[in-house]
Protein: MYXO-CTERM domain-containing protein
Organism: Nonomuraea polychroma
Amino acid sequence: MDVFLWVVQILLGAAFVLSGIGKFLPLSERMRQQQAYRDDFTDAQIKAIGALEVLGGIGVVLPWATGIAPVLTPLAAAGLGLIMIGAALVHRRRKEAFTVNLVLLAMAVVVVAGRI
C-alpha cells in the first residue's frame, strides 16, 4: 500500500506543480482556446491559483518524504481536493468536460485517506 500511495502522491504532485507553473507562463492562441475558463478570472486570480497548485504539489510529497511535519501531506492533498472541486464547478458551469478534475480529486482523497 505504501508504494501505491507514493505513486499517487508523486503523480498528484507533478500534475499540480506543472499545472501551477503553466499558469505563470504566457499563453499561445491555441492554449488560450483550450483554457477558455481563464476568461472568467483576472490575471492575479489565475496566478494565485497557480501558486496554490505549486505549493500543494510540493506539499503533497515533500513533508512525507523528508519526515519533517508529515501532517502537512494530507493537509496539502485536502487543499488540492478543494481546488479540484472548485475547478469542476467552474467547468460544469461553462458546460465543459471536468473528468480530469474528478480524477485528480479522487487521487487527492486517496492520499488524504492513506496518509492520515
